[in-house]
Amino acid sequence: MPTYTGSCHCGAVTFEVSGDIEQLTTCNCSLCRKKNAQMARVHKDAFKMTADWDTVSLYQWNLKIAKHYFCKTCGIYTFHQKRSEPDYFGVNAQCLDGFDPASVPTIPANGAAMSVAD
Ligand SMILES: [Zn+2]
């Protein structure tokens, strides 16, 4: 089973993802459109933060269920805890070392169709 290390641009945020990554998703919600990230779906047990959690900032919006993390220093989106499946993280595939995002299919997710708070 492969283990991928990942990091933000400046290197303050580091993490590990274990297991095969068979597909990625993009999302058309108002936040993901602006991040423009390809995301790997990773179970929380296969995700390990290897830096201090103090290196990331948390952004929440709308229903404030999903937890969107980004590096406090360089601003790169690294991963988020999913709203639809809280046991899973979405991980920025472009942050993973030795993983080619073009090597697996990328599926568009229709996050824009999820409910939005009034
Ligand atoms: Zn950084």
Short overview:
The chain has 118 residues and is mainly beta. 5% of the residues lie in helices and 38% in strands. The chain has one helix and ten strands; from the N terminus they run βββαβββββββ.
Describe the structure.
This protein has 118 residues and is mainly beta. The protein has a single domain, classed as Metal Binding Protein, Guanine Nucleotide Exchange Factor, Chain A (Beta Complex). Helices cover 5% and strands 38% of the residues. The chain is built from 1 helix and 10 strands, in the order E-E-E-H-E-E-E-E-E-E-E. It has a 5-stranded antiparallel β-sheet with strand order 4-9-8-7-6, with no helix packed on it. The protein is globular. The mean pLDDT is 94. Bound molecules: zinc ion.
Count the strands? 10
Rg from Cα: 14 Å
Please give the largest β-sheet.
5 strands, antiparallel
CATH architecture title: Beta Complex
How much strand content do the residues show?
35-45%
The number of domains is: 1
- What's the shape? globular
Uncertain regions spanning at least 5 consecutive residues:
none
